[in-house]
Structure formats: structure tokens, C-alpha cells
Amino acid sequence: MNNMNINWYPGHMKKTIDSLKSSLKLVDIVAELIDSRIPIASRNPLIDEILENKPRIILLNKKDLSNQEENSKWVEYFKSKGHETVMINSMTGQGVENIEKACKKQLKDKFEKNKEKNIKSNRIRLMIVGIPNVGKSTLINRLANKKSAKVGNRPGVTKNNQWIKTKGNIELLDTPGVLWPKFEDKLTGLNLAYTGAIKDEIMDVENLAFSLIETLQKIDENILSNRYGIETSERPTIDIMDDIALKRGAILKGREIDYTKTANIILDEFRKGVLGQITLEKVEDINVRV
Ligand SMILES: Nc1nc2c(ncn2[C@@H]2O[C@H](COP(=O)(O)OP(=O)(O)OP(=O)(O)O)[C@@H](O)[C@H]2O)c(=O)[nH]1
Ligand SMILES: [Mg+2]
């Protein structure tokens, strides 16, 4: 956790907010990108304050890695808060085609006013914001119409701001807003670490994997049992870890268990989705945390 505090010292946060606020003036709407496995931990704690009344849509990314039933519940939840919400997989582009429609819904007023003024413009200027590693660059690449050149600088706009033309009516600000995640409570830090959102480990890999095993066991005892062909029901976490090590041949000279290797296997397989589509934070958890 300490490393994250170093990366996001107060001065850094203030700079981020200032630059984000000036970018906000350039766009019609903001897409808040969230990791669908951890929709609580992957949101910035100040996002509502920063965006104020700016139109916003929510994009739940990495839908290939999360539980589809929980995803539906999260979409309902965010919609109930007034946010148009879209489930996406930025890697394959699945769901990305629904982003424009969601923007249009959220910008209905603007389009109606344009109509009254007899202005014919369907252009939607969009900026993506999100915490590190949530998939911002992948989504930008996915939305970008590779064949068309960059739209170029607009007059009166900082030289750095380039616009990317997409296949539809969306014009994308090429630099996304990188926000810091929540890191007030331990569970949030752990969930960010399990999913690989934090590169600087908040604890060593062995302890992290140990605690991931406990978490997965609580979600569904079949996850590890199915994947590694071991008995997991009502067994101590360390025994489960030992069994995984034996199954995977993570044994050192002198027949000692290689816990580092075992831990890396478990973490890597979880992050890649090999253990299944697993959501770590459910809608119900909102009442307990936040
Ligand atoms: N499985 C899966 N992986 C994804 C998806 N979207 C992004 N990724 C992966 O997530 C990792 C991070 O993606 P980036 O696009 O670099 O994330 P970013 O938000 O730009 O990260 P920073 O630039 O560090 O802030 C990469 O390994 C991507 O391949 C998705 O929908 N599904
Ligand atoms: Mg990036």
C-alpha cells in the first residue's frame, strides 16, 4: 500500500485533477472505465466531485474475465444511479459498438438543443478516464478508426490535445485521464493487487496468493478444486496451496515446496481468467464498504 501512496502524493493528485478539469472543457461527455471484476475498488473515490455535472457513461471493461450474472447486476445498479452503462471487452471489441448509443442517450438534451438551433452535428467529443491498467489505451485503440488520420488540433486548444476519429460519430481525446484508485482500506488494496491493477505489490506474492485462495474459496469452493483437480472443501488454505504446488511440480531441491512459484501460478491464472469468470466485488458489497 505504501508504494501507491508514494505514486499518488497529494501534489500529484491536485495536478491530475487540474489537468482533468481543463480537459473536461473540451469534451461533451466522459466515459468512466471500470474493471468489472472489481467495480468498487477500480473507481476513483473523487470521481463524482471531479466530474460534477459533466455528462458521463460508465463502461464496465474486461467482461470476459468477470461473472456474467454479476455483470448484469452491476449494470442495473449503475443505471439506477442514472448512468448509462455498457459492458465491454476492449481486447476483442465486444460491446464497444454500444458506446455511441449510450453517449447519445446521455446527451439527449444537447442534441435536442442543436436541432432547435438548426445545427446539424452528431459529433460526440469523448474522453476516457480510469485508474491505471483498467484498459484505457486498449479501448482507445479499439475505438480508433485506423484508416482515418487524426482529426488534428482545434484552434484555441492546447497543442497536446489530439483528437482521434472513430468509425462512428465519436471523436476521442487521445490522452485518457489517469486517475488514482481508492487505497484507504485493505480489502480495496488486495482486490486491486489480485487483478494486477497495482504493479508495486502491497504484499509479497506468497501472502497475496494465500489470501487470494481464501477469497476464491469463499466465492466458490469449486474454482480451485476444478482447475487443479484437488480437494478444497473445509481444508486449511496452506494445504490447498501445497496441493496446487504438488500438482504443478512446484518443488525445490530437497523436496521443499516452491511457494513463490506456486503463488505466481495462482495469481497469473486468476488474472488471465483461466480460473474462470470471477467477480470479486458484488453489488451487495457496496453497503458494507465504500
Ligand atoms: N481480458 C481482457 N484484458 C483487457 C481488456 N482490456 C484491456 N485488457 C488488458 O489489460 C491490460 C491493461 O490495458 P491498458 O489498455 O494498457 O490499460 P491502461 O488503462 O491504458 O493502463 P495505464 O496506461 O497504465 O493507465 C493489458 O494487458 C490489456 O491487454 C479486456 O476487456 N479483457
Ligand atoms: Mg494506457
Polypeptide structure, described:
It is a single chain. Strands 1, 2, 3, 4, 5, 6 and 7 form a seven-stranded mixed β-sheet that branches. The chain has 13 helices and seven strands. The longest helix is centred in the N-terminal third of the chain and has 15 residues, at 10-24. It is an alpha/beta fold and 290 residues long. The model is unreliable at 148-158 (pLDDT under 50). The two termini are 18 Å apart. The radius of gyration is 21 Å and the shape is elongated. The protein has two domains: 2-178, P-loop containing nucleotide triphosphate hydrolases (Rossmann fold, 3-Layer(aba) Sandwich), CATH 3.40.50.300; 203-288, Conserved Hypothetical Protein Ylqf, Chain: A, domain 2 (Orthogonal Bundle), CATH 1.10.1580.10. The chain has helices at 2-7, 10-24, 47-51, 68-80, 99-106, 108-116, 136-143, 186-194, 205-219, 222-228, 237-247, 259-272, 285-288; strands at 29-35, 56-61, 84-87, 124-130, 163-165, 170-173, 177-178. Helix 9 (205-219) crosses helix 11 (237-247). Helix content is 43%, strand content 11%. Magnesium ion (MG) binds next to helix 7.
Distance between the termini: 18 Å
How many structural units, i.e. domains?
A: 2
Question: Which class do the helix and strand fractions yield?
Answer: alpha/beta
Alpha-carbon Rg, integer: 21 Å
Count of distinct strands: 7
Low-confidence blocks of residues: 148-158
Describe the largest sheet. 7 strands, mixed
Which hetero compounds are present in the coordinates? guanosine-5'-triphosphate, magnesium ion
The sequence of SSEs as H and E is HHEHEHEHHEHEEEHHHHHH
- The first-level CATH class of the largest domain is given as Alpha Beta
The best one-word shape is elongated
How many separate helices? 13
Name of the CATH homologous superfamily of the largest domain: P-loop containing nucleotide triphosphate hydrolases
Assembly context of the chains = single chain
The CATH architecture name of the largest domain reads 3-Layer(aba) Sandwich
Mean pLDDT: 90
Indicate the CATH topology of the largest domain.
Answer: Rossmann fold
| Percent strand | 5-15%
Helix content: 40-55%
